[in-house]
Write a sequence for this structure.
């Protein structure tokens, strides 16, 4: 689910930045999350707050616990010391000594995991490059095949949770290429390495404790608990805290097995997750629309919502030239500014966003699900002559905008709402279409 743990964000209405897959595979697609919006199964705020209902040991109990309980196999002495301290904290969270021994058997510090974590921010794609892969002919064809193969169980999942089976399959397709690339990293080792590394130590230690609870609950064994280098697991890439909060046992065998070759529990867990956050059955994630000449780009704002009929009165209609059906209030999204496709997005867009906050990811899931269902390709063209800004270029744009009097409220290399509004203000000051598109040509103009 939603990886990309943290790093640069996909631009809301400008050029989108997409990170490389946590697996390093072209088959899996995960845009990046903003640290302030880590709210997916990959990074759920609610899940982060979730604690298993298990009594904690009192300090007097801890005194009787023999430590260390883990045989250190780490070549890094600092890592071995960290494990000793972690053992005590894990015991305070109710983790048994035998679980710790089994989970840490053979675990070593993994410098490759740290290298991948450090290098995330420089891997970027434009929205159209991302969608070219997210909804490629191969991914659509394989999605339709997966739908046919698992149709009976997907029908049952849809009936129980009220989430269209094509949407569930699309998430599966983007997260693990329909189960083909679930990740082979040892989750305990990866999370321990990242927790010890310290850059986001508190978060990863929380994930590690959650992973140990999963093992202690008997859902899987330590060495069977595999996934991405960043800790996402199974067919649809739940991180441990989200697993504890939302995973379900659909098969009824007493285990929430998202690692099995049988994807039933993983697919049902995804549907349960989307349902939990308010999925509206029968409502699209979004619809491609045409904008009228002279459209007020300030209206293309997530905070501005109107009914499809109201948008039609302003000249915003479907690609067929008719008003979009009344699926509920909607906003207008311009992922490449005024130079690319425009979408009227509904509540279900924000529900998929709980899986991954990057606009590109949500559009990717939504469009792939539409194509699996037999819908058409996106009609509008994209500004394919553009390239994605690098991390340093995004920071430079923020610096130059702020110096020019259009504050981005910080320089972090993430093109979020504040930077987009600064871009729009600058564009208005220069007589340009204020579409908020953070492009290379705009950066050159600022220079």
């Amino acid at each position: 689910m939603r990886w990309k743990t943290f790093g640069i964000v996909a631009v809301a209405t400008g050029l989108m930045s997409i990170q490389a897959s946590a697996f390093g595979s072209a088959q899996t697609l995960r845009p990046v999350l903003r640290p302030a919006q880590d709210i997916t199964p990959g990074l759920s705020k609610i899940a982060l707050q979730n604690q298993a209902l298990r009594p904690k040991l009192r300090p007097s109990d801890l005194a009787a616990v023999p430590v260390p309980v883990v045989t250190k196999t780490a070549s890094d002495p600092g890592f071995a010391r960290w494990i000793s301290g972690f053992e005590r904290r894990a015991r305070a969270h109710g983790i048994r000594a035998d679980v710790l021994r089994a989970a840490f058997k053979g675990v070593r510090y993994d410098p490759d995991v740290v290298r991948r974590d450090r290098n995330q921010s420089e891997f970027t794609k434009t929205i159209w490059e991302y969608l070219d892969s997210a909804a490629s002919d191969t991914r659509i064809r394989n999605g339709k095949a997966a739908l046919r193969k698992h149709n009976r169980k997907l029908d049952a999942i849809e009936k129980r949770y009220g989430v269209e089976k094509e949407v569930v399959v699309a998430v599966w397709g983007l997260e693990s290429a329909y189960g083909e690339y679930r990740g082979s990293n040892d989750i305990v080792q990866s999370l321990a390495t990242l927790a010890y590394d310290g850059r986001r130590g508190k978060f990863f230690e929380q994930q590690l404790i959650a992973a140990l609870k999963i093992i202690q609950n008997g859902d899987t064994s330590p060495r069977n608990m595999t996934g991405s280098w960043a800790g996402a697991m199974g067919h649809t890439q739940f991180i441990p805290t989200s697993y504890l909060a939302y995973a379900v046992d659909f098969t009824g065998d007493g285990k929430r097995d998202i690692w099995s070759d049988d994807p039933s529990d993983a697919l049902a867990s995804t549907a349960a997750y989307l349902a939990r956050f308010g999925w509206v059955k029968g409502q699209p994630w979004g619809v491609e629309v045409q904008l009228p000449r002279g459209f007020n780009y300030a209206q293309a704002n997530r905070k501005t919502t109107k009914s499809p009929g109201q948008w039609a009165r302003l000249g915003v209609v479907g690609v067929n030239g008719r008003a979009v059906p009344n699926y509920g209030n909607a906003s207008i999204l311009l992922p490449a500014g005024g130079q690319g496709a425009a979408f009227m997005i509904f509540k279900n867009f924000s529900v998929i966003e709980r899986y991954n906050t990057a606009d590109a990811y949500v559009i990717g899931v939504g469009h792939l699900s539409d194509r699996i269902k037999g819908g058409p390709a996106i009609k509008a063209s994209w500004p394919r002559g553009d390239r994605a800004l690098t991390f340093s270029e995004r920071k430079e744009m923020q610096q130059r905008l702020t110096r020019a009097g259009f504050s981005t409220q910080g320089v972090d290399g993430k093109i979020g709402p504040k930077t987009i509004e600064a871009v729009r203000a600058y564009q208005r000051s220069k007589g340009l279409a204020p579409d908020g598109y953070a492009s290379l040509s705009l950066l050159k103009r600022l220079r």
Remarks:
- Residues 1-40, 43-74 have pLDDT under 50 and may be disordered.
- The chain has 19 helices and seven strands.
